[in-house]
Amino acid sequence: MTIRIDTLSAAGPEFGRRAPQPVGPPDHGPAGAARLIGREAERELLRTFVRDASSGGAARVLCGGAGSGKSELLEAGVALGAAAGMSVLRCAGVRGSAPSDLSGLLQMLWPLLGDARLPSGSGQLRALEALLVDGAPGRRDRARLPFTVLEVLESVGVVRPLLIAVDDWDALDSPSADVLMFVARRCAGHPLGLLMTSRTPPAGPLSPGLPVLSLGPMTLAESAALLAARRPGHDPQAVRDLMARAAGNPLALLELPARTDDFPPHLPASSDRLAAALAPGAARLPAATRDLLLLAALHPAADIPLLLSAASRMRGGDPLGLTAVEPAERLGLVVLDGMRVDFTHPAVAGAVAHGTGPRTCRRAHAALAAELTRGSVLQLWHLSQSVEGHDPHLAARLEDVHRSALRQNEPAMALRLLRRAAGLYSAPRDQGRCLLRAAQLAHGAGWTRTSRSLARHASDHPLGPLGSLYAETLTGLGGDAPTIDPARWPRPEGAAETDSALELAHLVAPLLTDDRERADALLGYLDALPPEVAGDPRLLHAMASAAPVRRAATVLARLAARGPDIVAIRDLERLGEAALRAGAPLEALDLHRQAERLCLFHDLPDRLPATVLGQGLAHLVTGDWGQAETAFRRSREEAERRALSDDRAAAEILERLTCALRTGTVPEPADSDALAAGRVPVSALHEIVAVGTGWARVESGDVAAGHAALDRLLADPARCTPALFALVVFAEAAAAVNEAGTARARLRSLERDLGPERAPLVAVELAVAQAILADDENAAALFERAFHMDLAHRPFLEASLRLAHGRWLRRQHEFTDSRVTLRQAAATFAMMGAEARVTRITEELRASGQRTDTATAAGTRPAPVAGLLSAQELRIARLAGRGLSNRQIGQELGLSPRTIGAYLYRIFPRLGVTARAQLSGVLRSADEGVEE
């Protein structure tokens, strides 16, 4: 066994046997503690251990799997001990070797042997030196050895508290391991600490009676921090991919190769160091077991019968049974889980297959392809890995089946299929087409580096004009003039060029929002594309990005005409973003909810924060601040759990902003780095924050500042589209600061500029804002026009309109009608969580003669009911409270079920209820109040 001894750091300045130092396996050294990332709870336990060891003795075992970070934590403990003034002795086992007896003790005690300055009057050190260096001990010496070692260590601890650091205790020679365990159980009462690491034994606890600190996997946040510190420069999707494959194992995080060009035949990625750590005995397993493990590594989802059948095929037809799995199970590489063979860690799959030759790997892929369903995605994938050279027929099948992988929400598999198809084609044009499509998929999935690399490779092959433009744009080689000027783009010819046109438009549309001329050129180009792609999510997203509200009617009409066959999560997200930009938040909410359901169905948790974030934005646009804040909180929590820093930043900023709107406070300015990160999932985050902050100032009572901010943003709505959804609060602020005339002129200008295709929501906002700003002469007509707008499913606008109408009625001395209208507004705002608005309406009610206690109850128990509902609404509420369905109520009143649903949608917030079951109680209480 080789030995490495550092006399100064081992025993401190009091001791120092300066003998020639044998060379051995390097340790990390105390400086390694500074590199430790995460493990805060474990480090706190180590601090406690060092304090206890310095004063009265302590022992602890750091236990975990291969690569779990035991050695790094041991070095952190050594650094803490040295900082606390402890001397350090250390030794380490070496796996895969057969160390000689007592070599571990010799390694640990070497700095002490022969040091005459040690207080050891009974000569234990000389006895130990004779025992460990000069020859094998006799039977009597062997029996006394643990006591002798303990006495020597105790005497060393008298001079200075002593820390013994043992790495890989379970890999030491057996006599040394037994002696160290003996010392560990008896160190209490002496300034002596023993800190050991050991791999988790497959069966039972390590050793009863010793405190064990078990190391689990690192959290996702710790994994992301480790990658950022030790392996910077990866794009977010590559980081998520590494974290998924490493599953919290620090060694795997540092050693696993990032996905690069996948040269056939495919083999799970690993490294020499990782294979040695995670599968040290795999090469000595029986050949049948190694074949079975290779097949399981290539097809992790396969069941046992399929693996056994494929392994039998690899071995020429020799039947195999479950006994072939047992050696790998005894070695701790796999576990049998019902009908499946599961690796004990995801990285073990690559470790057991590491070093497999291409010929064997192709045979394994061919065996799997022969057992899988003919023509399926996986069958064609494995078949493609089993062939060499060109095969255009198989390449065409791969190119076709990649669409099935996309429909199954497996973009990574679709990307692999296209890249392999490019390798199987012999014609350069076919190769370029597949590489370009792969680049497009990689860009949509967030693999930035991969997409640019593929685009560069595609540029080396013959491409169509639009394909070349897309490749130039993606790699940043083309400059502005030829690439981002849609007026110069050629018309597509053929399906491949049409697809490139859609991808190119989707890529550049967000860059043209500040350039009206080029944005209009892009819109004209999109209008001229073939009609069969009119509803393509990429086209609608590009149209909504380039002209969010000027083409809203077209976007919404095409959204309504789309079929139910969209099952790709990314397409649903694009449609949801397009609907929100076009001013249709309810449609956007529905699309993002569909995307969330698909994320859960396909077990894609990393996509959840973005889909929930989209739902929060839809709620925010509708004015439902309570639901928006809940959605943003959910998104932030999901992002924190999965270490998705960009999604977390956006959700946190929007959650604070929504809370400020709801409570009537001004949010703290967002950090510039957080804003930059948040713009990755929410491109308009800066504009949303600017509008929301101005709005929050109005809600907080700083109306003049809020009005000035919103007025600046509305001066150029093309640069700040979110400001168009704040027209009502802008009108309220303008009326409060006596700027109604100027605001009316601003609204007329906007109405003229937006044109007939403006978003329906913006049209309603304009009508409500104009009513709010109306003078006494035109107020009645404008309020009537606004109330006749489509206010269904727009409760915030309806409540704002009723608030303004109630104020106007009070000014007309119609106090009774004013109170009814204001109570209706208060009930709706209370249901939506607008606390600051409910408080202000309380003041309005008090001004109109309403008692304070009744006014403050408006948010929870609006009364009297007869003042809140019309006769027809009251009758529908009573029938619904009796348990009748919408269809039954409609049959009794001669109305359609949809009309009854619309009535109930307006009734619920006015009465402060959220379910039919609450109606009977509210109506009964109101009736009792009338009787009294």
From TrEMBL:
Q: Which SMART domains match?
A: HTH_LUXR (SM00421)
**Keyword tags:** ATP-binding, Nucleotide-binding
The cross-references to CDD domains, in alphabetical order and at most eight, read: LuxR_C_like
Where do the HTH luxR-type domain residues begin and end? 862-927
Q: Could you confirm whether the keyword Transcription regulation appears in this record? A: no
Superkingdom: Bacteria
Q: What molecular functions are annotated in GO for this chain?
A: adenylate cyclase activity; ATP binding; DNA binding
* Gene Ontology CC terms: cytoplasm
- Please, one GO biological process term? regulation of DNA-templated transcription
According to the record, the residues making up region (Disordered) are 1-32
Family matches, as Gene3D superfamilies? Winged helix-like DNA-binding domain superfamily/Winged helix DNA-binding domain
Name used for this protein in its record: LuxR C-terminal-related transcriptional regulator
